[in-house]
From TrEMBL:
Organism field: Aureimonas endophytica
Gene3D superfamilies associated with the record: Periplasmic binding protein-like II (3.40.190.10)
GO cellular component, one term: periplasmic space
Domain of life: Bacteria
Subcellular localization, as worded in the UniProt entry: Periplasm
Keywords noted in UniProt: Periplasm, Signal, Transport
Family classification: Belongs to the bacterial solute-binding protein 1 family.
Protein name as catalogued: ABC transporter-binding protein
A Pfam family recorded for this sequence: SBP_bac_1
SUPFAM superfamilies: Periplasmic binding protein-like II
PANTHER family per UniProt: ABC TRANSPORTER PERIPLASMIC-BINDING PROTEIN YCJN-RELATED, ARABINOSE-BINDING PROTEIN-RELATED
Amino acid sequence: MTDMRNGSGRNPRIVGHVTLADRRAFLLGSAALGAAAAVGLGTRRVRAQERAEISFASAAFFGSETFGDLAKAYNEAQDRVKVTYINLPPPSSSTEVYQGLVQQLARRTGTPDVFSQDVIWIAGFAAAGWALPLDEYFPADKRGDYFPGTIAACTYGGKLTALPWFLDTGMLYYRKDLVDKHGGKAPTTWDELTEMASAAQKAKEVEFGYVWQGKQAEVLICDAVEVIGSNKGAILSPDGKSCTINSPEGVAAIQFLHDTINKTKISPKDVLSWDEEPSRQPFTAGQSMFMRNWSYAYPISQDAKVSQIAGKVGVAPLPAFAGGKSSACLGGYQLGVNANSKKREAAIDFLTWLSSAETQRRIAINFGLGPTRPALYKDQKIASENPFMAGLEPVFSGATPRPVTPDYAKVTLALQSGLSKALLSGEVKKELDAVADRVNTIVGG
């Protein structure tokens, strides 16, 4: 397990109820045991009352095991900390997950000690004082083990307030047979995608050239983050205090999405009412050459029982505008420590184990969730057991967070409304100017 703890020894000072020297002794003593948990080694028997007891709350993700199994493996492999797992609803019920965490954290009782959180909640939890800053435990020189985009998403107010765990991003799905015919390789620019899609439509090989998600919902923000980012633009300024969606780069990017429907006609008007599944269905039915979607769509597209294009699907980073680079909206859940935890050192040890290379490998194989450590995409065991996941490093390297602000819940609703109006009306500059004003009132007020 990569040791990310700050082991530099100086004069001890008090942190909570223990000194830094005590903390280092605790962490170093449990690090080997945590590593043993990751590889499934045995444990020593101790009395339960000698162990620090903490709790871990997370949305329920499923695979060949559960997150409860992860907590059990950690408990069985060491004798200093005992974790109780609190099972929250699945991420498809994200509102309920969010509300459950808010209710617990707002009580400031210290429960749960460790929690997982959607990337869009990180700034809000940090601003409320519910998330423990992690800089002293995970110094800057160790953060290079993670994708830069995930570190950026885990940082608020210049402080690391979450630790990367697993991720997902938007990606470009394409018909390999049609790409071979009309270009030979996946497009790297939006102009190339448009040209290839139009050619396949003209040849009547597909009904649609490119399907994406334009529904007035959170996924529309994800699509906008990607296309604007690929044009060297952004929705908010770096300090999060002003809206820049109406910059020339932002206007040109959203104009491109509008034009896919109304000018180049590579996308159907129906995309404005589609989220993930309605856009996935025509693609796997063989009706579209290209699709923007998340990683979940890959196993479906390769299942001959439900997909008419099984064996013909490729995945690549999303295209960019000339002079820009691929941008993929960051999704996934990251880890936090309750600022009011009464067992802070035990929480940090479990957090470190959860984010370790060994545990992320286990999650990639058993849950199909993308590691936040680039090195794992070259891992032989992952490549053998989940070759699709092993090939996603170029896609995840372009991971871009959604607007980082504690007011995200208000900002996203304003953006969804403004973007929908722009795409429907075609008055892109006018509507983006209007939504920028509304967002400025939220983040600047």
